Amino acid sequence: MKTLTGFALALLPLSAWAASTEFQDIERGRYISVLGDCAACHTVDDDQPLAGGVPLETPFGTLIAPNITPDAATGLGRWNFEDFKAAMTEGVGRGGYHLYPAMPYPSYTLMEERDIRDLWAYLQTVTPVENDVDANQLPFPFSVRQVMLGWNLLNFDGRRFEPDPEQSDEINRGAYLVESLGHCGTCHTPRNFMGGEGGDKFSGASIEGWYAPNITPNRHVGIGNWSEEELVEYLQTGGNRYAFASGPMADEVHHSSQHWTEDDLYAVARYLLSGAGVDAADWDREPPEPLAEDNAQVRAGSHIYFDRCSGCHTPNGGGEPGIFPQLASNALLNSANTDSLIRVVLAGSRPVATDAKPTAPAMPAFAWNLSDDDVANVLTFVRNSWGNAAPAVSASEVADMRETLESE
Questions:
Q1: Which of 17, 117, 295, 329 is in Cβ range 3.0-4.6 Å of 387 for a Cys bridge?
Q2: Which residue positions does the secretion signal occupy (predicted)?
Q3: Could you tell me which residues come within 8 angstroms of residue 189 by beta carbon, excluding any fewer than 6 positions away?
Q4: Domains 169-282 and 296-407 share a fold
Q5: pLDDT tens digits for range 350-381
């Protein structure tokens, strides 16, 4: 989009200048909504954007994302900017009711006021949709919103973003995007028993039956082996040589990061890979030794791998660029949490399709012809071959995931 120069603006009548400025604020707000990934939670039907209705599964029950169109009866039509700002930065809705942190206000509280104001301006231009959503479907006592008073006291600090004077402008921009609008920690930071962020920052966490992996610069279990270009490629296209976006991350790429500017994507990549946001002790650890080749599970798994997997991922785990990810020296395989790995082997996966790569590769399901022991063994083999090293996978872990998949 071309913008008017200062000289051209000076020649415009006052009303035209105001209209141009308002349009730019709205367009900027539209981009803020993309950075904040509003559509992933608030859009079920692309023909009715932001009308709500997406179920959000939490450890405490189900919430339904509300209608945030400007419909007066069922959306935000009766809200004003101060109402909206309070919801975004304090977790308090119009009339004083408390929001649940499935709406990531603990991250959005870091937003700059201009971003909140421009986002609000954009939301006023969205087509109003009458869609009455019963957002709170949690069981008692979690359905009582007053419990959030205690939760906020223990888990919410309401701080604002402050650039680090020792870091570059680009690193600070990346920090702002990751910590605030992108709310990456909402999925990638472990939670305490109350559902607040309570573990090592960005070290990985379970979400909706998937595992959001470690995104620290740890080379063994994080993204420390990824280049800036590979991380940008993943966020922009949905995949790189190590991984393809599936599960909740597929929604993020589809609705959000594939539409970010390259400047913002590189800012995020440089911030995450710099380790500026985490304690070095959380990611600068020595990797373990792999299980021995004569380990019973490793031996059994090697036969399954060469029979069922090597045709796509190649005998040496190198994969096929752009089609099948490499398994060799792949830190995503080394995590202590194996939920995503087991899920993909059992149920298969078709990663996100993006504008840049509209034809997404697919992983077939093996639940029908691999036993729990087979899946545990082949994953144990992969997790301890070609530069990988991780604990063995148990048949009981596979059985638990099989049961979860059957109940979905």
A1: 329
A2: 1-18
A3: 197, 199, 200, 201, 202, 203, 205
A4: yes
A5: 888 888 888 877 899 999 999 999 999 999 99
Q: How buried is 159 (Cβ within 10 angstroms: 0-12 exposed, 13-18 middle, 19+ buried)? A: exposed
* Rounded average pLDDT over 5-26: 59
| Cβ neighbour number for residue 139 with a 10 Å cutoff | 9
CATH number of the 169-282 domain: 1.10.760.10
Q: What tokens does 82 get?
A: 């101060």
Supply the CATH classification number for the domain 296-407.
1.10.760.10
* All structural domains of the chain with their residue ranges: 13-155, 169-282, 296-407
**pLDDT, tens digit, for every residue of 182-224?**
999 999 999 998 888 887 899 999 988 899 999 999 999 999 9
